[in-house]
């Protein structure tokens, strides 16, 4: 039987899509290969493994079972991403009491909600994203988020790549085609970024 595809004929952009019989409709999958065996995993399943580890760490410290949690997410997460996070928690055996935007959680952690009436800007510059929130503090543990925004491609990892690209411009003989060497250079650029947080200069040795 001939293949059937779906076509979105747009004014500016057009695209064509097919359904992979091995996947699930509308759910991206990652194929992992280990010891010759292949396994397809959804993003929720991978995230669930991280949550399971965090759950185990907490249980080892508290010496009791953990079944509920407040989970923070990037401010620019849409409903689909938030739902996926809820599904990941469910797979990890965790009931989500509340989902809080990361900048809002940071504001609460620093106690700004107890400092009287004022507006504050809180940003969370993470490894992969930048999240910003404007919060209205009313005192007496009251904190109202007025607005949130974020950037999906502005984080520590992006700085690592900028430093690496700068290094490559100065290392004319660097074997860019060797993946292991490039990976190692990226690791050294990450170390250089961290060093520059405390020092004005640093050295990248290749």
Automatic annotation (TrEMBL):
A Gene Ontology molecular-function term?
Answer: ATP-dependent protein folding chaperone
GO BP term (any one): response to stress
Q: Which UniProt keywords apply?
A: ATP-binding, Nucleotide-binding
Q: Pfam families, from UniProt?
A: HSP70
| UniProt xrefs under Gene3D superfamilies | 3.30.420.40
Tell me the InterPro entries matching this sequence: ATPase_NBD, Heat_shock_70_CS, Hsp_70_fam
Q: Which domain of life is it from?
A: Eukaryota
Which family does the UniProt entry place this protein in?
Answer: Belongs to the heat shock protein 70 family.
For this entry, the protein name equals: Uncharacterized protein
Q: Which organism is it from?
A: Diploscapter pachys
The lineage is: Eukaryota, Metazoa, Ecdysozoa, Nematoda, Chromadorea
